[in-house]
Amino acid sequence: LQLHHSSHYHCKGRVLSQWRESELVTVTVRRVPPTGVSLSTQPPRAQVALGDRLVLRCAVAAGTGPLSFSWHREGSGALLGTGSHLELRYIGDNDSGQYRCRVSDGDSVAESDPLNVTVM
Predict the structure, then answer these.
(1) Is the pLDDT of residue 2 over 90?
(2) The Ig-like domain covers which part of the protein (predicted)?
(3) Residue 57: which of 36, 77, 71 has the closest Cα?
(4) 116 - beta bridge partners?
(5) 97 CB contacts (<8 Å, ≥6 apart)?
(6) Which residues sit opposite 48 in a β-bridge?
(7) What are the structural domain ranges in the chain?
(8) For residue 77, what are the CA distances in angstroms to 14, 35, 69, 110?
(9) I need a labelling partner for 72 at 20 to 30 A (CA). Which of 16, 40, 62, 86 fits?
């Protein structure tokens, strides 16, 4: 269903050679705000060696789209990425810290718990 499917509906059918029509039913389609934002990592536990690769994935338990994603690291005002996953190809010392994913449907925003990335 899409938001534009909100309307009044009824059905028609033949019963014993006569056309019958049901009562009108009102259908209202509403957005479901994003909730249950969680992070997963590869490698697991977000412990990565200097120079290695780290992939962070953002998942949403519920929410109707379209959804947009943004990635942030504590202490940095910079936007790190806008997809459902963030790939850090060559981990450096400055990449340690707490990462979050924010998800928006255009009306509301949900945020993951912080994930601590440790560079060894």
Answers:
(1) no
(2) 34-118
(3) 71
(4) 98
(5) 73, 74, 75, 76, 116, 117
(6) 119
(7) 35-119
(8) 65, 24, 16, 18
(9) 62
Average pLDDT, the chain: 91
- What are the tens digits of pLDDT across the range 38-92? 999 988 877 888 999 999 999 999 998 789 999 999 988 889 999 999 999 999 9
Token pair of 67 as six digits: 């959804």
Q: Are 68 and 103 in contact (CB under 8 A)?
A: yes
Q: What angle do CA 56, 61, 117 make, to 5 degrees?
A: 20
CATH of range 35-119; options 3.30.70.1140, 2.60.40.10, 2.30.30.280, 3.10.560.10:
2.60.40.10
Q: How far, rounded to the nearest angstrom, does the alpha carbon of residue 80 sit from its chain's CA centroid?
A: 16
Residue whose C-alpha is closest to residue 112's, from 34, 43, 49: 34
